Amino acid sequence: xxxxxxxxxxxxxxxxxxxxxxxxxxxxxxxxxxxxxxxxxxxxxxxxxxxxxxxxxxxxxxxxxxxxxxxxxxxxxxxxxxxxxxxxxxxxxxxxxxxxxxxxxxxxxxxxxxxxxxxxxxxxxxxxxxxxxxxxxxxxxxxxxxxxxxxxxxxxxxxxxxxxxxxxxxxxxxxxxxxxxxxxxxxxxxxxxxxxxxxxxxxxxxxxxxxxxxxxxxxxxxx
Length: 223
Hints:
Pfam families: AIM24
Distance between the termini: 56 Å
Order of helices and strands: EEEEHEEEEEEEEEEE
Protein name: AIM24 family protein
Radius of gyration: 18 Å
Organism: Actinomadura nitritigenes
Strand content: over 45%
Largest sheet: 12 strands, antiparallel
Helix content: under 10%
Oligomer: single chain
InterPro entries: AIM24 (IPR002838), AIM24_sf (IPR036983), Trp_RNA-bd_attenuator-like_dom (IPR016031)
């Protein structure tokens, strides 16, 4: 089975497994064991739970996180009961992986099953010329909850070659071939209009999740 995408659903609607959307802005985890979640994302819980800082997972991952700036601070939640998590009232979207991989912008991670394997990797085709683009990869079978700025679109890359702004692409199948297009000519028309646009190009069988915003914008400096 492919990765499954679960968009906004009616409040309290139950999904298979132990991740569910309480509403479009809040995740409900039916916890009986442990789960990894973004630090500070807990808004409420019912039952007995312990919250611990989750380290980088070894010196290798610690160095990768420090050097690349990729990843998000995580906490490990153990116990039994209902855990409710959210982040800045952002939209929440669920994926269920079945022995497959997902490449994710670490800043968009809200929670995932603790038995999924995670690593920080350079995006294929994004070398030094592309600014050294790194993302988090999650592998295995289990749930992943991501946050997005606004309601995203999921594009089927098997239909046609697919391109996305590098800051708007939230997640994509690890099975895809990824390249980087850079164009000065379109810099004032696409992306942030900084004079240079960086687009990710995807080919193969899989999907790309693209959010409706490039993220928070920084107001220009005034003199």
